[in-house]
Amino acid sequence: MAELRYNPLLDDWTMVSGSRNKRPDMPKDWCPFCPGSKKVPENYRVYIYDNDFPVLKINPQKPDQVGSDFYKTVPSYGKCDVILYSPDHNASIWQLPIDHIEELVNLWIDRYNFLRKDQKIKYIMPFENRGKEVGVTMPHPHGQIYAYSKIPLRIRTELENGRKYYYKTGENLFNKIRKEEIDFKDRIVYENNHFIAFIPFFSEYPYGVYIFPKSDIFSFSDFNKDIIFSFSDIIKQTTGAFDHLFNKKFPYMMCIYNSPVNCDKYKDVENYYLFHVKFFPPLRSENSIKWNASSETGAWAAGNPRKAEECAVELRQAYVKFLNKQ
């Protein structure tokens, strides 16, 4: 049974799925995402795999009868896609040719444009969890796309703060952040024609790279051929720098943020939001994890044990190392 349960303390919804703990541990010598598994085509480059244990469904079951007028429950409406990046079980994004990454980006775009047609969907977020340090049990290169029927709290918070800043100053908050980073320069890791990668001044994570567009791009719907190439390039270069930082597979959570869809409340969103990417990498050094402990979890008081300026230097050096190997 899966459902959404309302949290009145946060004005947010918790996705509850009693069946996800039944997900089996995969045998070490078998992978459902590899050709030959009979779960995927024998020949593919990128592929949508229907999630075997989705927490969000187009045809959700009725919620369990455990709520009340105060403890509200609603069906867990939405969609959970698995996106396979490559048939190579051991590949990383940066190891793929640019034209292969462009196929992946085009798949994200196509799926975004398809999912947004459902008027019940309010937010669509592609993401990737990479590495055992963030709980990954399936190492085959893949990500997911969640299509939510409720806009999640973090996105709502950023939207509201962006809107407040716009009505106070007349300026897009994301444009202001980008300008601050460009003017300062030292936190920039890499940039190309359409995108810039940097560790923001306020980063919660030592190597928490953000990718912002250099122009008014609000969602995948605004991408053209040149933007697709630039986005593929900056994803390749950023993930390549990560893996060359400590010369090992670098764990991260990568989240791709588009503007909300089918939501009148944010119909003016282009005044105060931009398409962007955030990386949440848990390492603070080669062999040390930056854990979210009591203060971060219990109070949401973010703490970073490293300066963004120092970490940006390290990532730029790792990018040069990666560039020399290409």
Describe the 3D structure.
The protein is α+β, with helices and mostly antiparallel strands. It contains 6 helices and 14 strands. The strands form 3 sheets. The protein has a 9-stranded antiparallel sheet, with helices on both faces. A 3-stranded antiparallel sheet has the order 2-1-4, with no helix packed on it. Helix 1 packs across helix 4 (225-245).
Write out key terms for the chains shown:
single chain; 326 residues; alpha+beta; 6 helices; 14 strands; 21% strand; globular
Question: Quick recap of the structure?
Answer:
With 326 residues, this protein is α+β, with helices and mostly antiparallel strands.
Main sheet summary: 9 strands, antiparallel
**Mean pLDDT, rounded to whole units?**
95
Element-by-element helix/strand order: EEEEEHEEHHEEEHEEEEHH
Runs with pLDDT <50, length 5+?
none
